[in-house]
Design goal:
The chain is α+β, with helices and mostly antiparallel strands and 301 residues long. Helix content is 50%, strand content 19%. The protein contains 13 helices and ten strands. The chain has helices at residues 3-22, 111-120, 142-154, 158-163, 165-177, 182-189, 194-208, 215-221, 226-237, 241-260, 264-270, 276-287, 291-299, and strands at residues 27-30, 36-41, 45-52, 55-61, 64-68, 71-75, 79-83, 87-93, 102-108, 136-139. Strands 1-2-9-4-7-10 form a six-stranded antiparallel sheet. It is globular, with a radius of gyration of 20 Å. The N and C termini lie far apart (44 Å). 35% of the residues are buried.
Length: 301
């Protein structure tokens, strides 16, 4: 075993221990750091539609699979997943048990910190390379893993959380930006790049999903032709703009039913559907069950 492999092995065990002691409940656990969440599963998870925010996902124990459109991304404790823009993703945990639970973290990507880092790296011009898929999996390097461990360790003490956690988070984002595939993230945050325009569109859709929206209007908002816009949007997200909008609306409707107690018809109209029957068909296709059954499943402990 060479020195790098040994470093990763020791840091990986420490990382898993820290996640295990903090992820005490099944499912998503909040943490003292606002952008950090921890996940624990003690049984396999079948492909489940989840609306991911822009985040870095790291497995501490076990493995996970993310399906976006026709693309599948698998990652384990030696790899990490980057989702640079909010995306509806089918998440799957192939194996997990009470004795060997799945453990992982997600760190929301703070765009202001990313932009500050790019300025300090003097990378403000658009990349000449063609825009790439937004989602990617990359190898965990010792420096990134050490920064993740420092962030978790700093959360035990209020003073360390205030003084040390921001620096650890900043280093984590720096390691991702300068990592082997960091160019993919940089493409989406550089001003005036094609990737940045798609990221702007995604933010617009998140804020206006309930309104009538068409591709020519979206393309005009980012100064692109409809054909170039559609091609670039699908290249980045693995979904067409209309597919993305439809899945976003379904996720928002599910949240309204679960959190606000709305019925299926009211939720459908609230997110922009004109036909409750069409909403029910597409909801079942997306989540694998009619609205009432899906909400009952989510509410069952």
């Amino acid at each position: 075993m060479n020195q790098t492999t040994s470093q990763i092995s020791i840091a990986s065990r420490n990382f898993a221990r820290l996640v295990r002691t903090r992820a005490t409940a099944l499912g998503i656990n909040d943490s003292p750091w606002p952008r950090l969440k921890l996940n624990r599963a003690e049984a396999p998870l079948l492909p489940t539609s989840v609306l991911y925010q822009a985040c870095l996902c790291v497995v501490a124990q076990g493995g996970k699979r993310a399906i976006v459109g026709e693309e599948t991304y698998e990652y384990d404790p030696m790899q990490y997943l980057v989702v640079p823009v909010p995306l509806p993703i089918l998440a799957e945990i192939p194996t997990a048990s009470p004795e060997t639970p799945y453990l992982g973290i997600s760190l929301q990507i703070d765009s202001s910190t990313v932009n500050e880092l790019l300025l300090e790296l003097e990378e403000v011009a658009p990349s000449p390379k063609p825009v790439s898929r937004a989602v990617y999996v990359s190898e965990v390097e010792p420096a990134l893993l050490s920064a993740l461990v420092r962030l978790l360790e700093a959360l035990d003490d209020p003073r360390e959380k205030r003084l040390l956690a921001p620096a650890a988070e900043r280093e984590i984002l720096y390691r991702v930006l300068t990592g082997p595939q960091g160019e993919r993230l940089r493409q989406l945050v550089r001003q005036d790049s094609a990737g940045h325009r798609i990221a702007q569109t995604v933010r617009y859709l998140q804020e206006h999903f309930e309104q009538p929206i068409d591709v020519p209007t979206l393309a005009a908002k980012v100064n692109m032709s409809p054909s170039a816009f559609q091609h670039t949007f699908k290249r980045v997200t693995s979904l067409s703009p209309i597919q993305y909008l439809k899945r976003l609306r379904l996720h928002q409707a599910r949240a309204l039913m679960l959190r606000n107690g709305l019925g299926a018809s009211d939720a459908a109209f609230r997110v922009g559907y004109g036909s409750p029957s069409q909403f029910s068909r597409e909801f079942r296709r997306q989540f694998g069950a009619p609205p009432i059954q899906e909400i009952e499943r989510l509410r069952t402990p």
